[in-house]
Amino acid sequence: MYKLYAPDELKHRRNVDQVKLSDSSILALLIWQAEIGIESQRRFCSIFVGLSHSRFNRRARMLLPLIRCIRRAWNQEVNTTGELLIIDSFPVPLCQPVSNYRVKIFRGTADVGYKATKKIYYYGFKVHAIVSDDGYLLDYAVTKASVHDSKETVELMANAHPSSRDLLGDEGYLGRNLASRLKSMGYVLWTPYRRNMQGVKKHNDHQLMAIRRTIESDFSLLSYYNAENNRARSMSGFVQRLEVAILAYNMAYCLDRFN
Predict the structure, then answer these.
(1) Alpha-carbon distance 186 to 189, whole Å?
(2) pTM to 2 decimal places
(3) Rounded distance, CA 228 to CA 81, Å?
(4) pLDDT value of position 174
(5) Which of 32, 44, 67, 196 is most buried, judged by most C-beta within 10 A?
(6) Where does the Transposase IS4-like domain start and stop, copy by copy (predicted)?
(7) Which residues are bridge partners to 89 per DSSP?
(8) What's residue 1's pLDDT?
(9) What CATH number should be reported for the domain whose range is 81-88+129-224?
(10) What's the confidence (pLDDT) of residue 140?
(11) Main-chain phi, psi angles of 13, to 5 degrees
């Protein structure tokens, strides 16, 4: 991957031939860390890496543009089988709920939002993601935890430019305004109706609802790669760890599907 996708300014930077560990080795170690589920980078470095924690972090952050290049290139190369896209979000808590209003990390960048699955409030971020109906993650966006799902949808779709035109969402994406804005971009949004809405029995196609729920399984797999347990203490570190988790997840998808 490094040989195929690394930009020249990274490959040929000053003194690159004198580093103790190559960039490709750092990338492999990052993916391996996500695969074996070690959340603490300090612990991972002390056991496996052979570099100090601070130096490994600096080297890892240098590879963030490369990891993004790999993900975007794969989006063009991976031919997903289905014609539907699924959009949803998952929370990334930064502390225990008891510390929601005392924690100082990312103050002003993160905030308090509601985690509906566990019916609790949490402090942190929310990751909005577009996933193919067979599980490949195409693109994502990070917002404050309080941002409603529907508010990020239009910008996320505009940045991703997916070829599939049919989009499935949950009840959080209900609304004529969002549907009309997506329609003007060429996308058709389907969401289930709430139980008290007129025509709910006719509209709520159980097959579409079952397909949409597959994204919950995808998010469970992402949490295995520590996408929801991000211990970074800087925004660049946060994004780098999230990108590594998504890369490891998509690699597992490709290995499983294309052998």
Answers:
(1) 10
(2) 0.89
(3) 27
(4) 87
(5) 67
(6) 82-251
(7) 128
(8) 87
(9) 3.30.420
(10) 94
(11) -70, 170
Q: How far is CA 92 from the centre of its chain?
A: 10
Pairing of strands 84-93, 166-168: parallel
> 219, 90 in Cβ contact below 8 A?
yes
Kindly list the domain boundaries of the chain, sorted by start residue.
Answer: 2-70, 81-88+129-224
CB proximity list for 214: less than 8 A, separation 6 or greater: 86, 133, 135
Token output for 5? 């996708």
User: Rounded CA gap, 92 and 246, in Å?
Assistant: 14
Give the chain's count of helices (H) and strands (E): 12, 6
Q: How far apart are CA 86 and CA 190, in angstroms?
A: 10
Q: Do 80 and 132 contact (CB within 8 A), yes or no?
A: yes
Radius of gyration of the chain (CA): 20
Residue 84: enclosing H or E segment and its boundaries?
strand 84-93
Q: So what's the pLDDT on residue 101?
A: 92
Q: Which of 130, 165, 121, 122 is nearest to 149 (CA)?
A: 130
Please provide the DSSP assignment of 130-155 as one string.
Answer: EEETTS-EEEEEEEETTS-HHHHHHH
Residues near 107 by beta carbon (within 8 Å), at least 6 away in sequence: none
Contact 127, 140 (CB under 8 A): yes
Beta strand pairing call for 84-93 and 120-132: antiparallel
Which tokens sit at 122?
């949490």
